[in-house]
Amino acid sequence: LHAITPDRFVSVAGAAFHDLSYQQARLYAVAIEDAGVYCCEAAGSFRFESSDCGWLIQTIDNKPTPDLDSFIEVMKAIPDRSRVVVTYKHLKDMHTINTGINLIDRHWTSKMRMAVRNDVTGLWDFTDIAGALPPVPPVPRRANFIRMESAKYPEAVDVVRSFVRIAASMPVKLDGFPRAKKIGFGLVIDADKGLVITSRAFVPYDLCDISVTVADSIIVDGKVVFMHPLQNYAIIQYDPKLVQAPVKSAKLASKPIKQGEETIFFGFNQNLRPVIAKTAVTDITTVAIPASTATPRYRAVNVDAVTVDTGLA
Q1: What phi and psi values does residue 22 have, to the nearest 5 degrees?
Q2: Which residues pair with 196 in a beta bridge?
Q3: 237 pairs with which residues across the strands?
């Protein structure tokens, strides 16, 4: 019984892992041997969807992880900022294999630590078992943008070349912001310098890792250049030398749009796909975001909401 009850765990990339315990295996009627590594703290690089606990890691970077020792050897060989394929199951559903691509963070939590329970002192003995491998230098990549051939408005379709997808992961929760990960879009305002304007709903503060995805295929790192204290936007920058794609600086209007004007709506739906529709502006009104009484945090002020006559928006 002692042999199949874990007395050690490993913390790496913001998460913690140990072998599957006899108690959990009995509760869910799962065989202990080769079940996979149990993720007891699904955080950091291993924050999976839907549930915070109960995950069994099957493979990382296409290498099997049936137990803690094999998991440690696999994780030792993965450089910082690598994107690796992770397959995992949940204790409640051992017939379904989930697959995800995880960004392995070894810079906010650089050390891999082993904790072993000491039955003499009643404490955990911590040892560092591996440092972080440096990230692999990025290389320039080539890509093209989606073309919607059947769309009526080719100039509006071409706006997709000025949009990039932004994913920000926050290793530390600051300023009362409730989420650890946000995905949204940004508008390229200078393609030569790699400058992108985005909402502070996606990049709430600059202590974060930012991934910029160009043309749905090239992923480069971004950094915060400027955050407006009041008006809800941030300007971030990526390295344009790494992006071999026809990115275009957005052409901005010189005067604001007015109520009643016809326009073409361009946006992204919940599946992160571009959508276009002919529409009209029905209302322009100020947005008053109420102050949170529970959590003092940044909120946008002096912001206008433009309502358009389409369900897409």
Answers
A1: -60, -40
A2: 188, 236
A3: 195, 223
pLDDT digits (tens, 9 = 90+) for 71-80: 999 999 999 9
- First vs last Cα of the chain: how many Å apart? 58
Q: Is the dihedral of CA 188, 189, 194, 199 positive or negative?
A: negative
Number of other residues whose CB lies within 10 A of the CB of residue 305: 9
18 or 48, higher pLDDT: 18
Percent share of the chain, pLDDT over 70: 100
* Tokens 């361009």 belong to residue: 266
Strands 274-287 and 262-268: antiparallel
Question: How far apart (Å, rounded) are the C-alpha atoms in residues 191 and 243?
Answer: 10
The span from the CA of 269 to the CA of 108, in Å, is 32
Is the confidence at residue 259, as pLDDT, over 90? yes
List phi, psi (to 5°) of 205.
Answer: -155, 170
Encoded tokens for 4: 């199949």
pLDDT 10s digits, 226-257: 999 888 899 999 999 999 999 999 999 999 99
**Neighbouring C-beta atoms of residue 20, cutoff 10 Å:** 23
> How far is it, in rounded angstroms, from Cα 39 to Cα 47?
10
**Residue 50 pLDDT more than 80?**
no
CA nearest to 294, candidates 204, 176, 172: 176
**265 touches 271 (CB < 8 A):** no
Contacts of residue 251, defined as CB under 8 A and 6 or more positions apart, other chains included, come to none
Would strands 93-104 and 209-214 be described as parallel, antiparallel, or unpaired?
unpaired
Kindly report the average pLDDT of the chain as a whole number: 92
State the pTM of this model.
0.85
CA atoms of 20 and 33, how far apart (whole Å): 9
Whole-angstrom Cα distance, residue 244 to residue 214?
10
Q: Is the pLDDT of residue 152 over 90?
A: no
CA distance 36 to 18: 9
pLDDT of 150 > 80? The answer is no
